[in-house]
Amino acid sequence: MTLPKKCIGCGKCRTKCPQRCIEEGKPYRILQNHCLHCGNCYENCPVKAIVRE
Prior knowledge:
Blueprint: H1 12-16, E1 22-23, E2 29-30, H2 40-44
Antiparallel strand pairs: 1-2
């Protein structure tokens, strides 16, 4: 999963991540080596900025 330029920086993805592997920024960044691919970030993004790979 990646966060493209559509990210508005709201942080909802980060609060829903059980692994705490989303790094704050503009755009936020998913640290792939810790990601469980659970989909919590994807399901909670208000602008659907997360792309499943």
